[in-house]
Amino acid sequence: MRRILITGSNRGIGLALVRHYVQTDALILATCRRPGAADELQQLAAQHADRVKVLQLDVIDAQSIVGCVDEVRQHTDGLDMLVNNAGILPGGVDDRDANISHLGDLEADAMLQVFRVNSISPVLVTQAFVPLLRNGTDARVINVSSDAGSITMRSNGCDYSYPASKAALNMMTRCLAGDLRADGIRVISVHPGFIKTDMGGVNATLTLDQAIPSLVQTIDGITLGDTGQFFNWDGKKVDW
Ligand SMILES: NC(=O)c1ccc[n+]([C@@H]2O[C@H](COP(=O)([O-])OP(=O)(O)OC[C@H]3O[C@@H](n4cnc5c(N)ncnc54)[C@H](OP(=O)(O)O)[C@@H]3O)[C@@H](O)[C@H]2O)c1
User: Fold this and answer.
1) Percentage of the chain surpassing pLDDT 90?
2) CATH number of the 3-232 domain
3) Of all protein residues, whose CA lies closest to atom 26 belonging to ligand 1?
4) Which position among 36, 104, 137, 192 has the lowest Cβ density within 10 Å, counted as fewest Cβ atoms?
5) Distance from the CA of 41 to the center of ligand 1, in angstroms?
6) In angstroms, how far is the first alpha carbon of the chain from the final one?
7) Best mutation site among 5, 6, 7, 11 for ligand 1, i.e. most ligand atoms within 8 A of its Cβ?
8) Quick check: CB of 194 below 6 Å from ligand 1?
């Protein structure tokens, strides 16, 4: 039975990944900040009580990470896939003004918060789960990045924190890939597609139903030879 941990699994892409993998025989460690408020996820867990475990994890809270590792160990001694999906874009794509992201409005604490969630927490969560990943089969770490973080693709206009946080995440992917290669643990960044979620907004180009099948094919298909690379949801490479 494949063992999969997903962060931010109460809505959006994270919840859609749970919905997908629940159709397989996987054990899903579905983590979120507020399990008590995660109604859709809790319903899914109630229907599949043996295979969907809802666990508390606030990815920027060190104690929460420690507690989550302890809880996961009560269910399994290994992890085959860790999906670092939790991320923030304050205001979402449709309300960039709320991002406090324009030159002239930039403010350190708001920017740091984006980096803490999007760039730093995936590394710290991965670090905490390395012992379990070492016990995994074809273990992999999937860092959900964004093509917004592609420096090559950026021409003009920038909302600073979010794209820069994903560019930083991509470098974290490379660092982790180098350190974990000897353990056979694959680490990639993936752009999930521009998807209609709370973050992607109503004008996004893809629905979850359109994007998720290709996205899971891509993340399930990676080999050790792919470690450290940046993939698009459809399996193509994204320019750094
Ligand atoms: N949608 C797109 O078009 C798109 C495009 C490129 C990349 N992405 C990336 O895909 C990932 C998922 O995006 P989405 O569209 O599904 O966004 P979303 O609908 O806004 O969901 C974000 C998820 O992240 C969780 N989260 C935020 N901060 C957290 C924290 N400190 N600890 C734990 N969970 C936290 C949220 O939990 P709460 O409910 O508790 O806030 C929520 O479950 C993100 O990394 C995003 O950057 C999305």
Assistant:
1) 89
2) 3.40.50.720
3) 86
4) 104
5) 15
6) 34
7) 11
8) yes
DSSP string for residues in 23-92: TTT-EEEEEES-GGG-HHHHHHHHHTTTTEEEEE--TT-HHHHHHHHHHHHHH-S--SEEEE-----TT-
Which residues, 6+ apart, have CB-to-CB distance to 49 below 8 Å? none
Q: Quick check: CB of 85 below 6 Å from ligand 1?
A: yes
* Residue 117 Cα to ligand 1 middle (Å): 10
Residue 66 pLDDT greater than 70, yes or no: yes
Rounded to an integer, what distance in angstroms lies between the CA atom of residue 182 and that of residue 177?
9
Query: How far, in Å, from the CA of 182 to the mean position of ligand 1?
Result: 30
61 CA closest ligand 1 atom index: 31
User: To which H or E segment does residue 113 belong?
Assistant: helix 108-115
Residue 117: CB within 6 Å of ligand 1?
Answer: yes
Angle made by CA atoms 107, 198, 160, in degrees to the nearest 5: 25
Q: Which residue has the tokens 């309300």?
A: 95
Q: How far, in Å, are 19, 85, 144 from residue 24 at the CA level?
A: 10, 20, 21
Cβ proximity of 32 and 57 under 8 Å: yes
Name the 3-class secondary structure at 231. Answer: strand
Domain spans, the chain:
3-232
pLDDT per residue over 122-180, tens digit each? 999 999 999 999 999 999 999 999 999 999 998 877 789 999 999 999 999 999 999 99
